[in-house]
């Protein structure tokens, strides 16, 4: 059923440079339908493993709040806030309509996205460096902690990575195709458009792709490559113009919290982009091998530009009035780094095989090996075993390195140290019809405790939000408007639950003085509970 594929580098190397040794997929993992299968499987397993265990954090709660509104309400909200996420919110709106809004369901599109991205990383790397490098790159991508982290995130970042890797694959196909190329350029334009629609910062990938095209112009006539790229990139950019204009109007509110990056941040930010310093060292070391090895040096230049130029573009753009320099916005650059690292690991394994097989046999005995050097049967057998074992061994070593990080990503509070689910469970255990709630707002509004409690409480437990004058949906926002005179909003609720940030013994510490006085005038504390950085206090109405 499965066929063996004999894979070798697809692009010419530098003049006179030896090519990588031919390595069958069986020498790595004996990939079934294609070398993309194992990376996709690993990415799916790592992304889906305990995907529902980490609690939703505020950004994911925002996704749930937006996506569960009606299409009309969502459109009204996007005119006011978060227009740059509109494509993702509408995608999730219809996804939730089909599959529900459990944590696993909310994160499933991201899991599927990194699964597809891992396959495309393998296929794109194969086109540049050959099959062993492609398989290595795809597996490395799947093991990067940041990839698993955002595979379990109900936000658009994983979908952006999928669109960017698909755009890269279409670009390579368009540059190599000798026949009709317009279908590939159309696919490329659509993928860039999708990447930008899911997150505008990802449009910086055009800088990396421009570098790839520039390198290829040395080998191909500009009449085929350059016009196609320029037309496709322009079409994608034009399609994103409405989102760009809307995003500019809302930027001061959306991303004002992101600091302007310094030059040193170009290097210091990489560990957070990859997830850990350990995987950063592994990827950069393997990338250096790919850049220096004679067999991969020529093609490596294209991928170096693909990895570095988008980072530089985002850095320069962040020197203006708005900064976009934060690790999750840069996740789309990770595939290029793993492509380089995969090529480096394959080149390193190939060099080790040559060194082992290149030992000469005295007295001219033995037979010549693949590099023209006479080797004994034992040496040739050892070289074959080494070739079959070294790449998997290196990849397994990387897996051991990232194992602690992969484990910590599945903790309940991996996304947010505040235990909203635990707090909601404490409340639900003693809920009575007619209860009301006062979630902390003010300086803690950005935590969206009100939305988080609403998500984790049972649907049957509906509590009146005491101090809300106008809810978030009617305001076309994520945040509700509170009563200017709190005492006027007090009703006849027999009990009130106060949810505060931290573990202060004072249940009113997070409330405004006016809100605290209003509650004290009619209610007295009954008991206080703590759950992972949150305090839940039950107030009962005085007689």
TrEMBL record:
Domain Glycosyltransferase RgtA/B/C/D-like: 90-238
Membrane topology: Multi-pass membrane protein
Protein name: Mannosyltransferase
Domain of life, per lineage: Bacteria
InterPro entries reported for this sequence: LipidA_mod_glycosyltrf_83 (IPR050297), RgtA/B/C-like (IPR038731)
Pfam family for this entry, one: PMT_2
Source organism: Kitasatospora cineracea
GO CC list: plasma membrane
Swiss-Prot/TrEMBL keywords: Cell membrane, Glycosyltransferase, Membrane, Transferase, Transmembrane, Transmembrane helix
GO biological process: lipopolysaccharide biosynthetic process; response to iron(III) ion
């Amino acid at each position: 059923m499965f066929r063996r594929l004999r894979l070798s580098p697809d692009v010419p190397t530098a003049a006179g440079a030896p090519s990588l040794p031919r390595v069958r997929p069986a020498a790595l993992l004996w990939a079934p339908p294609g070398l993309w299968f194992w990376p996709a499987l690993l990415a799916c397993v790592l992304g889906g493993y305990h995907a529902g265990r980490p609690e939703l954090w505020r950004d994911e709660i925002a996704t749930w709040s937006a996506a569960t509104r009606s299409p009309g309400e969502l459109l009204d909200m996007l005119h006011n806030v978060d227009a740059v996420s509109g494509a993702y919110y509408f995608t999730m709106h219809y996804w939730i309509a089909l599959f529900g809004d459990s944590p696993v369901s909310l994160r499933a599109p991201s899991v599927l996205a990194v699964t597809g991205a891992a396959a495309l990383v393998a296929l794109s790397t194969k086109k540049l460096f050959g099959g062993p490098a492609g398989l290595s790159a795809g597996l490395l991508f799947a093991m990067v902690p940041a990839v698993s982290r955002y595979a379990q995130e109900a936000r658009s970042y994983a979908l952006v990575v999928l669109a960017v890797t698909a755009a890269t694959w279409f670009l390579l196909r368009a540059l190599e195709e000798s026949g009709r190329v317009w279908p590939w350029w159309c696919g490329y334009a659509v993928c860039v458009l999708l990447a930008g629609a899911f997150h505008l910062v990802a449009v910086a990938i055009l800088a990396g792709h421009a570098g790839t095209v520039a390198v290829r112009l040395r080998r191909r006539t500009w009449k085929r490559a350059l016009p196609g790229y320029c037309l496709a990139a322009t079409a994608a950019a034009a399609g994103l113009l409405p989102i760009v204009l809307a995003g500019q109007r809302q930027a001061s509110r959306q991303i004002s919290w992101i600091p302007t990056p310094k030059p040193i941040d170009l290097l210091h930010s990489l560990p957070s982009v990859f997830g850990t310093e350990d995987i950063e060292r592994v990827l950069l070391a393997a990338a250096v091998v790919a850049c220096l090895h004679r067999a991969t040096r020529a093609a490596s230049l294209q991928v170096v530009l693909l990895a570095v130029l988008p980072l530089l573009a985002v850095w320069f753009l962040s020197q203006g009035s708005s900064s976009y320099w934060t690790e999750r916005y840069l996740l789309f650059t990770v595939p290029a780094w793993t492509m380089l690292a995969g090529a480096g690991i394959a080149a390193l394994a190939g060099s080790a095989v040559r060194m082992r097989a290149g030992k000469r046999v005295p007295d001219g005995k033995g037979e010549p090996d693949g590099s023209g050097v006479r080797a004994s049967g034992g040496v040739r057998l050892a070289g074959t075993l080494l070739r079959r074992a070294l790449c998997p061994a290196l990849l397994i070593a990387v897996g051991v390195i990232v194992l602690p990080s992969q484990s910590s990503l599945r903790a309940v509070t991996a996304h947010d140290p505040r235990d909203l689910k635990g707090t909601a469970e404490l409340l639900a255990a003693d809920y009575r019809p007619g209860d009301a709630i006062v979630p902390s707002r003010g300086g803690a509004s950005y935590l969206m405790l009100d939305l988080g409690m609403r998500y984790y409480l049972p649907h049957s437990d509906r509590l009146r939000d005491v101090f809300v004058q106008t809810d978030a949906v009617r305001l076309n926002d994520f945040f509700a408007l509170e009563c200017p005179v709190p005492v006027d909003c007090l009703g006849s609720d027999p009990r009130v639950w106060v949810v505060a940030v931290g573990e202060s013994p004072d249940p009113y510490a997070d409330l405004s003085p006016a809100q605290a006085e209003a509650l004290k005038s009619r209610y007295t504390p009954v008991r206080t509970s703590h759950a992972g950085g949150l305090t839940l206090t039950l107030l009962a109405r005085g007689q």
